[in-house]
Structure formats: C-alpha cells, structure tokens
Fold this protein.
Amino acid sequence: MRRRIRLLSFLGLPLIVLMACSSDEVVSPTELTPPSNLRIMDIPLSGGQVELQWDGAVSVDVTYVGYRLYAHTQSIQSLDNAQELASYEKKEVGSAVQNTVLNLGDSYTYYYVHVRAVTDEGELSRASNEIFLIARPEDEGAVVYEFATQAGNPSGYDLSEGVAVSMALTNSDRHDKTDFFLGYADGITGGGALYLWSPKRASSDYQNTTGFAGMTSSFDDLTRVPDGTTFLDHVAVTAGSVIAVKITDEHAVSNYAKLYFMRVEGDEPERTLVFQWAYQPTPGRPELVPAP
C-alpha cells in the first residue's frame, strides 16, 4: 500500500522553523481592534497552496502598518503575553490583507492560524478569528473486508484518519469515526454482490450519514464534486468505478471525498475491496485532491 499525504505547511517551510520578525521590539497585545473574518479563499488542486484573506483592522486612534500571521498545532488565539507569542511561528505580511500558505508535509496535523494587526509603534492588536488547516490525505491500495468476514477483519473505513475499522457494535469508540462499510444489496446480510453502505445501515448508533454518487470521469480528473450531485446511501462495487462521497456528521457538517474501486480479491465470505481514495478535510469544500 502506498500512501501520499499533502500537508498545508505554513509559510512554505516546516512549521518548526521560526520566521524572523521585521522588528525585535516585543510589545504585549493590546485592546486594539483586531482584523476579522480570516478565511480560506482558495484551495488549488495541486501544489498544496492555500490563499487566506481577512478584513483589515480599522482604528481612528492608531496607525496600522501591517499584519502578522501566527500558526501552531494548538490554539494560541487567546495568548496576550508577548514573550509567549514571540516563540511561535509567525510571518510578517505587510499591509496586504491576503497571503498564501504553502506546502509540504507528511502527517495528519491540524494547524491553528490567526492574524493580528501591527501598529506603527510595534503594538499588536488582539487576535482575529482562528481557522485551522490540515493535511489533505489520499491513499492507494486501502483494503476493507466484506461484512460477513471473520471477527477482527475490518469492514468499515474512516477517511478522516485513513484507517480500516471494525464494524462490531462493541467497537463503540468508532461510532463517530466510520464513513462507510462493505456490505451487500440488503446491507449487512444476504451475501452475493458487494455494495458500499452508509454506516447507519449497520446501526443507528453510527453518527455519520454517507452518500455515494457514481461519476463518469477518471479518478484524477474528478477535481471537485459537481454542483447538484445526488447522493444515495449505497453504491454497487464494480471494479473501475469512480465514486464521489459526501459524509455528514451529527452536526450537519459535511466533508467530501472520492473513491476508485481498484479490484475485489478473495472468495466469499472473505472478499476484500482494494480501493484508492482522496479526502477533503475542510468542511463544505467540494474540491478534491488529485493523484500527482
């Protein structure tokens, strides 16, 4: 199995590298009005770049001369100690209200990002809203077993972590971390032809509701889920098929993915589906990650 992970790394450099500030002056954050509405504007399908924008800070009392982006693996939005802030990854971005965060990395790591305004005297504003960036994973050669397999063989899959999971009801810690399972025309019984199902077909204890839609494009050419796509709670497993996936959690937050059914191996009831997938971890974004 070959796994590829694209990580949106801050500043185009490994996050452990601290960028130099334009000033050595250390001034504690004040009650100055912060920038607002920090947001992701675009996630290109290759190159791993992410464009960020925000609404500039406005004040009649001070003069803002630039902005400073911060990123860390834990939230530091609430910090107001200048010495603590000085130890974190940051980037001086001048007076522009947009900047680009570059790749690459190699793990499923969340990075919390916020922006602060800087005055002509070196004072920092409070933090803007905070957003997070995450590695966008894909995998080639993932495997799940059919539902009637021997105990211990995983028939479910969690795209957010890239792992096959057991569908045993005793595996309750996976009830909110299972996106689909390999079953049959009737769900978990009947044998015969193989289907992928939303986990709720197995039990209402599962929290994700997953929909599938067959696509006519190739896996690499499926760069985003088309607007108006109709999703069903199951799809027949046919080697060579490309499938768009919509996963909606208990809070009605949806993520998109795509699958390519490579082949079915073995004999019933120990058949396995070997597949390729790519997952968009940013909620609500239909863009998908192509293979390089």
